[in-house]
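Budget justification aside, the reviewers requested a transparent look at the raw inputs and outputs of the sequence design task funded under Objective 1. We therefore reproduce one unedited record. The lines immediately below are the structure tokens for a 536-residue chain.
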């Protein structure tokens, strides 16, 4: 019989208090059952299948084996070819870099490439790397809704279809566009146990019920018909469109970095799960739409809570930005590693500037949120650059742009001649539109300065991030993960998921009526194990 002889701790009637009697160590053996035993010296723990009650020892509680691979949806693992229901979300401008995605894939996780904001040639270069370095392994690419630059969506989908990208993470959508519909339908074919196979998977990141419903329903018939008439899809794909939802997975995004409605996950996730269940009954899909959780997930406890609420998978974002593989500067990673819970603020978004849409950024150590808001107020209150009072214009030229606005406009013209000439045509006879493009220059450059570590522009860094970063920093304080140079994205994933399984087992002991000592209720971050970062 495998037993332990703990030092005297406690003896009493019901709801015994469990101290540090080797219980934490036993619970960390996730692939073995754990038994809490009461003996003549109090309470202790034993792990393994050979434990028997009897004699001086009584089993007062037990938890089954529970590894991180058992959290979430097994269907998510099968659909995406991953070993755990964990995903690193896209961070625009290549901050969720090719290196990050490759590291995740090799470790058996799903990573999403941050294609938004990059020129097509940069995206294509990454796609070639994926085909060469991780053939057959899972990855996704981001498609961000670009209502002001429709060409970007179209070009991205052209690239994804040409290179055979099999999973797209759709984010920041305010309405469906023909481009995301085209991608989904172009991967439909007859076959499989249900008569239709969707080779092109869509993971839709949403924060509103009306947008969730758009992605949970089949593609709108008018869009399907228009795509068929254009020759973008086949007649068979148009016929099959009504039998599948637009998205396989719906990521419920709570208080996250970047674009966010800052809604709390406990309020939001159950609503979307209930909505999914109702639509499943209405539409009769043979395959269940999966619902995942994102926003605020930076610790094992947060991941475990999401799974406990019914999430099929979890998505991290902010915490990955401070990792070695992230495509941002060392300076930014150091700033992120110092962030606390209250060090974040909303600021105008470059891609939806004219609409007044905001995103969440780091405010500690940067003036970007204040300066970006000032520019939006000037845009909102005036009909163009020439209508701005001379004193206000001189101030922003000196403090924010550090050059005359005419020079900024000339640089903007050069940029859009290469990226999207339609933007210039729209601004030619519209002074307010021209002002928007000039002000967006600062917002775009602020993210670029942060990514490249432009020292002279440190006070203008735009760093998309949310409170999960502060939560993560608090958790890893005093461990090897406290230093950003030690943070590797697969290591972070492993510890969050392993810790989530550990906290699941703790919850089972609490449900059995045990009061747990504070000494054992925190997942202990071990030293790194490089062997666990690479998938065989």
């Amino acid at each position: 019989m495998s037993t332990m002889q703990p030092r005297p701790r406690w003896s009493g009637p019901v709801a015994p208090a469990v101290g540090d009697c080797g219980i934490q160590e036993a619970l960390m053996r996730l692939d073995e059952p754990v038994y809490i035993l009461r003996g003549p010296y109090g309470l202790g723990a034993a792990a393994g299948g050979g434990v028997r009650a009897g004699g001086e020892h009584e089993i007062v509680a037990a938890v089954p084996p529970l590894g991180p691979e058992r959290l979430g949806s097994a269907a998510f693992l099968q659909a995406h070819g991953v070993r755990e229901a964990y995903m690193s979300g896209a961070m625009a401008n290549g901050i969720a870099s090719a290196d990050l995605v490759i590291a995740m894939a090799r470790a058996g996780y799903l990573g999403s490439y941050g294609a938004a904001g990059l020129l097509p040639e940069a995206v294509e270069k990454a796609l070639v790397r994926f085909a060469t370095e991780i053939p057959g392994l899972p990855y996704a690419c981001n498609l961000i809704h670009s209502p002001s630059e429709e060409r970007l969506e179209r070009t991205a989908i052209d690239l994804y279809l040409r290179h055979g990208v099999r999973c797209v993470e759709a984010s920041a959508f305010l309405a469906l566009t023909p481009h995301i519909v085209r991608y989904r339908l172009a991967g439909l074919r007859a076959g499989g146990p249900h008569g239709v196979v969707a080779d092109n998977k869509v993971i839709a990141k949403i924060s509103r019920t009306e947008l969730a419903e758009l992605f949970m329903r089949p593609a709108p018939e008018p869009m399907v018909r228009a795509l068929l008439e254009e020759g973008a899809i086949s007649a068979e794909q148009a016929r099959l469109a009504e039998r599948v939802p637009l998205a396989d997975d719906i990521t419920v995004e709570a208080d996250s970095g970047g674009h966010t409605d800052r809604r709390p996950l406990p309020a939001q996730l159950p609503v979307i799960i209930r909505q999914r269940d109702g639509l499943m009954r209405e539409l009769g899909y043979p395959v269940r739409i999966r619902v995942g959780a994102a926003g605020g997930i930076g610790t094992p406890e947060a991941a475990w809570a999401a799974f406990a609420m019914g999430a099929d998978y979890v998505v991290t974002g902010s915490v990955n930005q401070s990792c070695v593989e992230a495509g941002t500067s060392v300076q930014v990673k150091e700033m992120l590693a110092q962030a606390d819970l209250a060090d974040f603020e909303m600021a105008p978004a470059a891609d939806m500037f004219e609409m007044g849409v905001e995103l969440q950024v780091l405010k500690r150590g940067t003036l970007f949120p204040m300066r970006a808001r000032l520019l939006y107020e000037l845009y909102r209150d005036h009909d163009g650059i020439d209508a701005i009072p001379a004193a206000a214009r001189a101030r922003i030229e000196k403090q924010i742009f550090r050059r005359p606005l005419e020079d900024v406009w000339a640089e903007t013209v050069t940029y859009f001649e290469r990226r999207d000439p339609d933007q210039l045509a729209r601004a030619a006879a519209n002074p307010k539109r021209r002002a928007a493009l000039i002000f967006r220059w600062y917002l775009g450059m602020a993210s670029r300065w942060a990514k490249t570590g432009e020292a002279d522009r440190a006070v203008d860094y735009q760093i998309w991030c949310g409170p999960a970063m502060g939560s993560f920093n608090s958790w890893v304080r005093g461990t090897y993960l406290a230093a950003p140079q030690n943070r590797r994205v697969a290591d972070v994933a492993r510890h969050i998921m392993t810790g989530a399984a550990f906290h699941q087992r703790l919850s089972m002991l609490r449900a059995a009526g045990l009061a747990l000592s504070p000494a054992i209720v925190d997942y202990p971050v071990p030293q790194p194990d490089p062997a666990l970062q690479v998938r065989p």
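The radius of gyration is 26 Å. Residues 1-18, 532-536 have pLDDT under 50 and may be disordered. Computational costs for records of this kind are itemized in the attached budget.
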